[in-house]
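Entry:
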Amino acid sequence: MRKNLVYNSPPWKPLPMKSISSILFVLVALALSVAAVLIAHASGQNMHSKHQVTAKASMSQHEDVRKHNFCPHCGMDREKYSHSRILITYSDGFSVGVCSIHCAAIELKASKAKVVRSIEVADFQTGKLIPAEKAVWVIGGNRKGVMTAVPKWAFTGLKAARAFIQANGGTLGTYKEVLSRAEKD
């Protein structure tokens, strides 16, 4: 004998699709946030508060590092790599601070439509920013480069660059040669 089954609707009302999408979005965002914290923790990075980062940047001896603490392309600390840092200023006054000539090449390629007002690079010895085109560049040598297998260093004068080459190897180069090689890195 067969019983007639009566379908009783559930005591709750089904959610509309829009609400389900919203809930899923929140859950995915939460999962991504947790994953980012776990990855940072596993890689040994400290999750600094905004105040700690600002305090560290304000202690920098370099004004551009106080404004641009970290490289926007690779995340490297520009204070730690102050000897290879570069500051690019566009005609509209907007500036970008990067850690190396490698990341400068990435920035310039990504911002082709913008007009560049100036490109300044840190003198390897003093950390003082100098015009990249007027710098005396050393390509290569046995000193480990920043973001590249072939190091590229800037110096204020020829005497300092030659002393570096004598101690570490490498060859003299121009800004255009250095930028061209960095674009290929």
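Residues 63-184 form one domain.
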